[in-house]
Structures are given as structure tokens and as C-alpha cells.
Amino acid sequence: DLSGTACPPDIADIILRTRLAFASGDMSRVPYWRMPEEVDAITDIPYIDDGVRGHLLDVYLPHDAVVRGGHSLPVFVDIHGGGFVYGYKELNRNFCVQLADRGFAVVSLNYRPAPQTDFIGQLRDIAAAFSWMDAHLADYPVDARRVFLTGDSAGGTLALY
């Protein structure tokens, strides 16, 4: 809520201007969001089933992963950046596709930006995504014993916690 009722109006204004500045730069990425035939994506999976966009994740797999059988793929979990106030999983799509094209499974997740929640709420979102993975990774051809965590900018900070 950027109306100023959930946070002071001056902070809401700073957050809104930051989001607009980030978005103007990110729009140049959109034409390059292509999914190669060698990669399959299962998108917008709710890790908390509450209808909140910040609680969705995507799974990227090499196309031949099911054919190879077994649970052999190592998993990268990617947390996007955005200064804690902006961003979404699709911004890292090319990175995730490149990892999947090289034989990794990738889980790319959203978390709620400020002021929808605070830093602790964002950490809880990440923890909830890991709970979902604990319950559901067995449904995919992955080795849940080989999970790597990556993030950029704010996502890197969240990954450290």
C-alpha cells in the first residue's frame, strides 16, 4: 500500500520513485525473455496459496530431465534483487534459463517487497518457499541433497540470512 497509510507518505514516495526508476531500466529486458526448447518452465506455483504475487515461484528444468530419469539434478534456488522494495522472479529469467540449459534445476521465487512487509516478513517468505521445496521437490527429477542458494542485490542479502 503506497497510499501513505501503511507507511509515512515521504517513505511511500521514495519507494514509488525507486520502483519506477528500476522498472524503466528493466523494461529493456522484456524482448529477450525467450524460452529455449531445451528448457521447460513450470511458472507461478504458489508456495503460499493466498493469491499474493509475492508468494509465487517458478521451476526451470532441462527438457530432457524426465527422460534421463531419477532424481539427479542439482538445484539452484534464485532470489531476485530490487532494493527490498521492487523486483520479481521474471527479472532473473535469463539467468535461470542459462542454468537449466547447463543441466541444473532452478527454483526462482518471489517475495513481498516493502512496504507490503518488512525485512523479517521477507525472510519468512523465503522460509515458506523452502518449506514448499521440502514438501514438493520429490515431485521433480532433482537431488534435494544438492541445493545451492543464489541471489543478487537484496536477494543476495536475503540468501545470507
What is this structure, in a nutshell?
With 161 residues, the chain is α/β, with parallel strands linked by helices.
- The neighbouring-strand order within the major sheet is 1-2-4-3-5
Distance between the termini: 26 Å
Task: Give the C-alpha Rg.
Answer: 16 Å
Order of SSEs: HEEHEHEHEH
At the first level of CATH, the class is Alpha Beta
Number of helices: 5
The main pleated sheet reads as: 5 strands, mixed
On the 0-100 scale, what is the average pLDDT? 90
- Total discrete domains: 1
CATH superfamily: Alpha/Beta hydrolase fold, catalytic domain
Approximately how much beta-strand content do the residues carry? 15-25%
Detail the poorly predicted runs. none
CATH architecture: 3-Layer(aba) Sandwich
Look up the CATH topology. Answer: Rossmann fold
Described by the principal axes of the CA atoms, the overall outline is globular
What level of helicity do the residues show?
25-40%
Number of strands: 5
Structural class: alpha/beta
GO molecular function: short-chain carboxylesterase activity
Keywords: Hydrolase
Protein name: Abhydrolase_3
Organism: uncultured organism
Main attributes of the structure:
161 residues; alpha/beta; Rossmann fold; five-stranded mixed β-sheet; AB_hydrolase_fold
What does the model show?
This protein is of the alpha/beta class and 161 residues long. The protein has a single domain, classed as Rossmann fold, CATH 3.40.50. The chain has helices spanning 9-26, 65-68, 93-101, 119-136, 154-160; strands at residues 39-46, 56-62, 73-79, 105-109, 142-151. The protein has a 5-stranded mixed sheet with strand order 1-2-4-3-5, sandwiched between helices.
